[in-house]
Give the backbone structure.
Amino acid sequence: MFGNTTANHKLRLMNMLKQDQAAIGTFMIFKGVRTAQIVAHTGLDAIVIDCEHGNIGDSDMHDMVTAVAGSGVSPIIRILGPSGTLIKRALDTGAHGILVPMINTAAEARSVVSFAKFPPVGVRGQGSPFACLEQGLATPSEYVAKANESLITMVQIETVAAVNNIEEICQVDGVDLVFIGPNDLALSLLGYTPAKYTETVFLEAIDKVVAVAKKHGKKVGILVLDGEAAKKAKERFDLVVMSADVRALQAWYGKELKVAKS
């Protein structure tokens, strides 16, 4: 799990996970500094800047990390996939961690860890003058000295193969959190999505991931739809990501327009 680093108050999510406190986050699909600031000031512990499915480019990613971290919330970047170039670019923004989708084997998880860590643990190159700023550190050198122990490496479990290999994935040193992607997991297991959450094979897969993660000392996260689901999920998950900005907008306008047009 996490190293024995001196507590850094800027690292909100890391501190909560270390203290075994359930954290609540959300996905951001829309780009924009002001959007990021508004969402960050709602009381969230973390915001996952979604560079996999969102309308977020490289420059947007940099700006949003600054806006989120400056609001006292932990910015996490979901990247496109397990590429060393993408991992380095995401972490160079000063993000407090990464979420890597579609990790199906221990070998893939080890590769993610290697790309995310500086030598001698991994192969990440240094050079960003920005990363230290979002961590509250004075110099890039200080950031490099602390980063291997202070960044959160998350891998996403969302296929049959990943569930079958979860024992081995959870034994990879440097993987801090396994994150269940229920929509793709349902698609892989059931052939449709979203799940109804009554399907035995789906529920058993989630139970297996949670049990194995806990056994190996890994934190575990999941995506949920709303506050009621998040409240329930906090009982067994360490990170609960509650829907996304785009869904919040749709839900509010849909509800209020129904009233307005009635």
In short: The beta strands are 23-28, 46-50, 74-78, 97-100, 152-157, 177-180, 219-224, 239-244. The chain has a mean pLDDT of 96.
